[in-house]
Every structure is written in structure tokens, then in C-alpha cells.
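Reply to dn_fold:

You asked what the input looked like. This is it:
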Amino acid sequence: MTLMTALLALLAQDLVDNPEYKGWAAFKAGSSVTYKYNPQEGGQKVTLKSIGTTEAVVETEILLNGKTVGQKTERKIPAKLPADKVSKDAKEGEEEIDVAGKKMKCRTREVEKKTANGKTVTVKIWIQEDIPGSGAQVQTLTEAGGKFSMTATEWEKK
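and this is what came back:
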């Protein structure tokens, strides 16, 4: 039994806090955030369905002209991640951006990722703790020059 306990303790040391879970942890079920896509039309609404000590469950619906398109999807967000799944070389900073018609001071986090086909994608997140999920804006840049972003337009805190 002591060998099993030691193994479990060793495995637990390799887990770190999941930043995405932390963005939802301060909110209650029913909290939501709506994003507008750019340059594409439409957006998405993400609603916190449940929050526990080990995971959050969110529901995402795609919006077009203010109406839900297709099926809503649920996703589980674990509270902890293996340490090797969290980028250690992220660039961090602070910026003030326009969010839902007002200036908001945000922390920024920028990481580069390799896609399955070997291309580099840069993802930058503007983090604002007053917004459920903490994502004020997310921007993705491809090495070919493609750019996609989504910006929070409204949110509801429960």
C-alpha cells in the first residue's frame, strides 16, 4: 500500500492549475459570456453549467444573427492539467483594450503552438477576471498571415 501511495503522490506533483478552469472558478452555474467573431460573421455564447473542485462544465452555442445555429456542445474543463500541457514559455504582459464598449485593463498571455501539420500558430489571450471564463479577447495568428479573433460583447455573472 505504501508504494501505491508514493506513486500517487508522485503523479500528483506533475499536475498544475489549469488557467482555463481558474477563469470559471469564481463564478456560479448560469454565468455566461458572449463573443463576437472577427472577421467572420456570428459569435458564440459560453455558459457555465457546473463548477466543482475537480472540473467545470461549460456549454457552447454558436450564434448567427443572434440565433443559435446547430447543436449546443458541452465540454469539461479539468481543474488540474499535466505540467507538460501548460506552456512554460508564454509571453505575459498588460494592455488596456475596448471590451463591450468600455476600456478594460487586461493581463495578456501569448503562446506559440505547432499544429498537427507542423505550422506555427500564435494565440494571444486578454485576461479580465470580471468576465466569466476571464477571456476578454482571444486572437489567433497563423504563420501564413491569417488572423481570427473573438471579443467579449456581453456577460452575465451569477
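The chain has one domain: 16-156.
Hope that clears it up.
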